[in-house]
Specification:
209 residues, alpha/beta
Amino acid sequence: MLKLTVLVSGGGTNLQAIIDSIADGRITDTEIVQVISNNPKAYALERAAKAGIPALCISPKSYENRELFHEALLAQIRKADTDLIVLAGFMVVVPPSIIQAYKNRIINIHPSLIPSFCGKGYYGLHVHEAALAKGVKVSGATVHFVDEGTDTGPIILQKAVAVEQGDTPETLQRRIMEQAEWKIMPQAIQLIAHGKVHVRDGRTFIDPD
């Protein structure tokens, strides 16, 4: 059984996609052991509670410095015997201490086709604003392992989504969530749960079915 700790900061739509996928059998042999948010007002915490999942807030504002916050976060992740950390809209930089402790066991969803529109400053609507400003015809989403860089870890899955004439950052964001993010994040977790994803030389290799 793969034990997930899901880290969130906002509404938790990707968290809900994971919860629903476990419930309907698209993800098997997996359980969410806890949901942690840095934001006490995150609606994602309510989503977790409604699903009967332990939900708690660990806020950097509660600690004297970032190092103490990072220590508390890592301790709570370990306490739940976590196998895989899932970043589902977590707006906090994951420190090297956690990345090293969970090497190739942290995944993130990014709302573009990496390496386009990623890295420092590319988050939320900023990603879609940049894509529309560039005039790309296709965008999408990427699930990747997390390393010490920003959106630089090995790519697991990607899904393309068409950019439509008249799109706004908000409409493009919604379409990418519905057509890509909510599909490939559960798919990636299912692959990892069944030992099908391997990292070699900074790249992922997925076993065929």
